[in-house]
Amino acid sequence: MTTWSRSLCLVLAWTFVGTLASAALPTIYVTDALPANSEAVNVECSSQRTRTNLGLHTLKAGDVYRFTAVENDLHFCRAEWGRYFASWHALEPSRDGNHKDVYWKIKNDGFYLSWDKSHWSRKGEWETE
């Protein structure tokens, strides 16, 4: 095998492994399920280890903010809605296991987690000053 063909094989193998690794990372969905006439909610999420900030997103009722985890590590989100604020662990590898999708619903009484969009569990509440 020539040096050129070995190099090509290595590049292809590296690309394949990189694709598999990124495909294994879960996708997180954050849905604004607040009442239709509510003011928008601001959501900002980050990775804990790399501190990768995924940006500030303003959601209106029914909007969905979707992102893929930047690594298989804790990801947390912060939200502000009028005079209310909250933070929660959007991705917790020990809790979320091998689920490829993690769903969050933001409601006026708190934050709900699901892996199938059918069974929801409240995991947090709003705070106020």
Write a concise keyword list for the protein shown above.
129 residues; alpha+beta; secreted; Immunoglobulin-like; Self-incomp_S1; signal; 2 helices
Would you mind describing this structure in some detail?
- With 129 residues, this protein is an alpha+beta fold.
- It has a single domain (26-128), classed as Immunoglobulins (Immunoglobulin-like), CATH 2.60.40.10.
- 19% of the residues lie in helices and 45% in strands.
- The chain contains two helices and ten strands, in the order αββββββαββββ.
- It has helices at residues 3-23, 93-96, and strands at 27-32, 41-47, 53-59, 64-68, 75-81, 84-91, 101-107, 110-114, 121-124, 127-128.
- The strands form two sheets. A five-stranded mixed sheet has the order 4-1-7-8-9, with no helix packed on it.
- Strand 8 and strand 9 form a beta hairpin.
- The radius of gyration is 18 Å and the shape is elongated.
- The termini are far apart.
- Mean pLDDT is 86; it is low at 17-22.
What is the succession of H and E elements? HEEEEEEHEEEE
- Approximate strand percentage: 35-45%
The CATH C-level class name: Mainly Beta
CATH topology type:
Immunoglobulin-like
Number of helices: 2
Q: Could you say which structural class the secondary elements and strand pairing correspond to?
A: alpha+beta
Number of domains: 1
Q: Which ranges are low-confidence, i.e. pLDDT below 50, for 5 or more consecutive residues?
A: 17-22
C-alpha-based Rg, rounded: 18 Å
Number of strands: 10
Q: What is the CATH H-level superfamily? A: Immunoglobulins
- The order of strands across the largest sheet is 4-1-7-8-9
